[in-house]
Amino acid sequence: MAEPIVRFGILGCADIARKLSRAITLAPNATLYAVASRSNEKATAFASANGFPPGSKIYGSYEALLDDPDVDAVYVPLPTSLHVHWAVLVAQKKKHLLLEKPVALNAAEFDKIIEACESNGVQLMDGTMWVHHPRTAKMAEFLSDECRFGRLQKVHTMFTFASDPDFLKNDIRVKPDLDALGSLGDAGWYCIRSILFTANFELPKTVIALRDPQLNEAGVILSCGASLYWEDGKVATFHCSFLGNLTMDITAIGTKGSLHVHDFVIPYQEKEASFFSVSEAGFNDLVTGWTKEPSKHIVTTELPQEALMVREFSRLVCDIKFKSLKPEKKWPTMSRKTQLIVDAVKTSIDKGFEPVHINEHASVSVLSGLDYLKKNLLGKST
Asked: Which of 57, 95, 101, 375 is catalytic?
């Protein structure tokens, strides 16, 4: 029997929507059905340039697309400042929601989106593509292997890319009224998600932003970093930037092994990705070399990671539509945890690099320097 097909509508013609249009075309259980822009002309040009099939619906307003009863799911690549308004409307129209990251300006906004999706029984997933690559599952196997990796101790991750002057002046990611989180919400989102991935999505207790972030004249973050601390002693750091050469690394260190990835956000090659691992490495007798060298693990895939994301999202939609199953909650849970850490880093920057405590069931709270010293260094309750 043929696999059910999810009909996608795309809300807006952002540049990232070109990539998702191709992904929807490649996914075996999805199809491009409609696109909306603020003008028919722009929507028509986008559909023509991005392989929409004949007969696809073209809408000159977002509302018109949401009113189409044949749209099953909506991809929202709009600026972050518009997410809460349009994502809630998508859910209220009973459309399943694939939402670009960062999912919101803060966790309180995202909670409104989650509530709308839950009350309307629709699936919610953010657009973090790399977690859907089969390489990620293979890395998870190694990280969870107590014999080869042991217990996680440290994680360092970074995602930087050098933006040209036009980007730094005109891109929505440097505009305070569109994407006020800047590189923290864009590149930093991937770093934070990778840290949570290595920590099996256990939230840290405390986050401290690194000093001297770089901001533009409007106060939008162009480059920043942070340290994350868990009660059991795990520590993670990350750096994200619009100003450095293209780098996308994860280094995870355990008590028995370590893992290294050099292209975790976007693999060097579309259908092949790799990572390095080593267990119980040491020096030779003269300390002139290693007793073990890291092994390279190559993972292939027939579909690129963005198409795998669409395929998984569409599978969940079909399970709800045709099997009366409930929406899968793990995806919005991952999104919310990522957003909580984004919030904590931003709060720490705004509060002069004070430690910030994360409360999974609420949001974040600032610890004074003395409170942090008592709690973490002196072992006293606050």
From this structure: 101
